[in-house]
Amino acid sequence: MKPDHRFLKQPQRFWANVRIIGQEVGYSARGGNAVKVPQFEEVERAYKSIGLGVSHLGVSRDRLTPLGKALHSYFEYRAKSLNEFVEPRLMNAARAKQVFEGLLAGGRPKCPLPMNKQKGEKKAPAYLTGIVNMLIEANSGGMPCDYDPRQLTTVTRDKVPLRALARRIDGAFPSPVNPVAVWEIKEYYYTTTFGSRVADGVYESLLDGMELADVAEEERVAIRHYLIVDAHYTWWECGKSYLCRLLDMLNMGYVDEVLFGYEVVERLPAIVREWVAVAKRQK
């Protein structure tokens, strides 16, 4: 999923309101199975309860300020995107296994196909990582790719380092040194709750995005940044609020695209071909 360009240039005060409204109003109706659109009356009650005014948003749902209208449009877009596009594409372990085995049977991949970190009967291939790796290999035209960088992403100019990111990422094309693209993979097929480890993964990607945004602004070096996530139960049943935060991160410009579950199969081949074209131009 790409960002909606209506929201990419919003100021920080816009995102401050997005976060506070989410915190105070919630992300889905109590007991509901869908992401909701907060209404003005809910926001007004919530803001008043924590000592905030709402005149900057409007006086009623029919009399909103430009900021209030922009926020309402964003919440409508976010809810529609998650309810209608994202939720049907999030896979469980059985479906991910089927996709993984289908790709595996269709060729002889040489890329890494790592195992997950589970034990016992849950130990299996890391399905989403394997799917990503096989799709990249099949569409990269034989160009190199580091599927598991063991070093920090580094930006150099004339053999002089300009930036080194704070943490290692999950993959880099064609290399973690001056990459065209980097990505993080968050698959949680066997997780039974939305715990701190999953939440930390979201914030790690936000840190990566903020550092890459700084590289683009200060050094004029654009590195494409992707977040790839899956597991219907973890993200949809337990973590709708964090799915909302992923959409926020995307539209704040800290991720170029977020790929949700089966969207990897639909979208990644075209993305990889774009990387190849950029890498060839940079040679």
Give structural notes.
The protein has 283 residues and is of the alpha/beta class. The protein folds into two domains: 12-89, no CATH class; 93-282, ECO RI Endonuclease, Chain A (3-Layer(aba) Sandwich), CATH 3.40.580. It has helices at 12-25, 40-49, 66-89, 93-105, 127-139, 196-219, 232-238, 240-251, 263-282, and strands at 58-60, 63-64, 154-157, 160-164, 171-173, 181-187, 224-230, 257-260.
Number of strands: 8
CATH topology of the largest domain: ECO RI Endonuclease, Chain A
Structural class based on helices, strands and sheet pairing: alpha/beta
Strand order of the largest sheet: 5-6-7-8
Biggest β-sheet strands, sense, barrel = 4 strands, mixed
Query: CATH architecture of the largest domain, please?
Result: 3-Layer(aba) Sandwich
**Helical fraction:** 40-55%
Using only C-alpha atoms, the radius of gyration works out to 20 Å
The level-1 CATH class of the largest domain? Alpha Beta
Number of helices: 9
